[in-house]
């Protein structure tokens, strides 16, 4: 069987590896428009903020590795059209050469594109996005210009907050804007998000939440200020980070879409076309918290969807486990992690929930070094199944969120969690720890 994979970043790579390692009898062709593959965007802010020395370690594989494994791989080759009827893909190489490939099965792994806000002045020089490695390089160069003093970040989601920290670490005056009342509003309830807001402000970043950007003001074709409904602010560098949209340009007229966005897929990541699978940021996913289709753009989901699609396509039935949207962030040492639904997300999904919360130190009081930890657990009122959790601390409590992720996936109730056997050792935690205490607070 001849299998074509379009897009070879995290999702496409996971699918290709699964096929090459488990089903070597198939012919694999990979098509990628970029010059590189496997760029870990999560490292952009670390590198731009000089927390790591350079970007070389942010790539975990390359074209040669796949050629060696037996795949035919084309980089700098953009797929321009797919004829789903005759099962043919048309592409163009960087030098203009046109190529044509047929397929028996097709995997779309074309990812996502940053949403571009079309405020007046959107085409000025000095406005940036942060999706590709090359865009990271451009932002890095812009911040290296000594005369660029003022940086405005539009959107205080994950990319925005991370790059705001990086720009501050590079000695810039940084302002961050978001339409919502706090940063990270789609990941955390206000009580947690406000800890991040305070953290940003304590480190000298000016926050402008609930303030709407209306215009980029320029001079001689270059941005010099950002105008909002509340004021005008100097800006030499503007970074736009108001979210991603699924990149479905190639298949949107043929394949069924989820809410007009990502390719709608089943639990095998198969699209509405029997011979076409879609994975990663260009595809929908299944949410265990809302028990319905969702769209969440994360590298972690992209990898898993690639593995599941590849097995199913090759004939081994494997149902995707669904997702919780588990995520984490670490800014100036404040760590926030969450999974599943916030109170607002639950309300939006029409799920009636309650929550319990507890804040305590990680270790018993007699330990010489200690940290505050704040935990919130969200559960469905009727079934009492856990549907979300949020944790905040300067201590690394990140691994705990995986337990809550599994709890959501497996529909564990808050009452079961209260009686869970959690070990105790002063070096790690307390006998009456914040998980147990929080869960015991859940009133019937
Ligand atoms: C700055 C930043 C930080 C991030 N941090 C994290 C993090 O910490 N944790 C996390 O889980 N996620 C993070 N993400 C999100 C994560 O990077 C994405 O969810 C992930 O890249 C999705 O992988 P993908 O392979 O589905 O899509 P993409 O990474 O978007 O890759 C799609 C590929 O398809 C190619 N392509 C598209 N169209 C065509 C075409 N017509 N022809 C040929 N090739 C094509 C593209 O060139 C691209 O290489 C971050 C993203 C960014 C930008
Ligand atoms: N640590 C992690 O896991 C990371 C994950 N990612 C993922 O990459 C994807 C893209 O990241 P982001 O672009 O940061 O998206 P995001 O969805 O995290 O945040 C976008 C932010 O922009 C705001 N916004 C939307 N429209 C706006 C407007 N017109 N004006 C002002 N604010 C506006 C939203 O309120 C939101 O806070 C996300 O899926 C994210 O989860 C990115 C970086 C790190």
TrEMBL record:
Transmembrane segments: none annotated. It comes from Facklamia miroungae. Its cofactor is FAD. The keyword Amino-acid biosynthesis does not apply. Belongs to the class-III pyridine nucleotide-disulfide oxidoreductase family. This is NADH oxidase. GO terms for molecular function: oxidoreductase activity. It catalyses: 2 NADH + O2 + 2 H(+) = 2 NAD(+) + 2 H2O. Residues 332-429 form the Pyridine nucleotide-disulphide oxidoreductase dimerisation domain.
């Amino acid at each position: 069987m001849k299998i074509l994979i379009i897009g070879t970043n995290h999702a496409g790579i996971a699918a290709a590896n699964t096929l090459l390692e488990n089903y070597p009898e198939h012919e694999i062709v990979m098509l990628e428009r970029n010059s590189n593959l496997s760029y870990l965007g999560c490292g952009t802010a670390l590198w731009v903020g000089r927390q790591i020395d350079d970007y070389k370690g942010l790539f975990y594989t390359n074209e040669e590795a796949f050629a060696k494994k037996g795949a035919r791989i084309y980089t700098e080759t953009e797929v321009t059209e797919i004829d789903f009827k005759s099962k043919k893909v048309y592409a163009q190489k960087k030098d203009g050469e046109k190529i044509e490939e047929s397929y028996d099965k097709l995997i779309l792994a074309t990812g996502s594109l940053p949403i571009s806000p079309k405020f007046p002045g959107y085409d000025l020089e000095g406005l940036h996005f942060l999706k590709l490695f090359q865009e990271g390089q451009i932002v890095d160069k812009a911040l290296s210009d000594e005369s660029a003093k003022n940086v405005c970040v539009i959107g205080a989601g994950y990319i925005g907050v991370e790059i705001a920290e990086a720009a501050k670490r590079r000695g810039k005056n940084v302002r961050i804007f978001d339409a919502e009342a706090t940063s990270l509003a789609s990941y955390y309830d206000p009580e947690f998000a406000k800890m991040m807001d305070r953290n940003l402000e304590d480190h000298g970043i000016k926050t402008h939440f609930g303030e709407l950007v209306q215009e980029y003001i320029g001079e001689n074709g270059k941005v010099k200020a950002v105008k909002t409904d509340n004021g005008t602010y100097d800006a030499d560098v503007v970074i736009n980070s108001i979210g991603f949209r699924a990149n479905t340009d190639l298949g949107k007229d043929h394949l069924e879409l989820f809410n007009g966005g990502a390719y709608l897929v089943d639990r095998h990541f198969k699209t509405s076309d029997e011979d076409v699978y879609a994975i990663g940021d260009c595809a929908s996913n299944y949410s265990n918290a809302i028990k319905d289709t969702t769209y969440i753009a994360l590298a972690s989901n992209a990898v898993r969807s690639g593995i599941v699609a590849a097995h199913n396509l090759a004939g081994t039935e494997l149902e995707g486990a669904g997702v919780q949207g588990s995520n984490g962030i670490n800014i100036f040492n404040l760590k926030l992690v969450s999974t599943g639904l916030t109170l607002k997300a639950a309300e939006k999904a029409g799920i009636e929930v309650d929550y319990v919360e507890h804040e305590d130190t990680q270790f018993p009081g007699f330990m010489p070094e200690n940290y505050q930890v704040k935990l919130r657990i969200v559960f469905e009122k009727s079934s009492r199944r856990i549907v979300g959790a949020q944790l905040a601390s300067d201590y690394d409590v990140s691994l705990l969120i995986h337990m809550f992720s599994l709890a959501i996936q497996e529909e564990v109730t808050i009452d079961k969690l209260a009686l869970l056997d959690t070990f105790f050792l002063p070096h790690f935690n307390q006998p009456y720890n914040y998980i147990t205490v929080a869960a015991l607070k859940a009133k019937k």
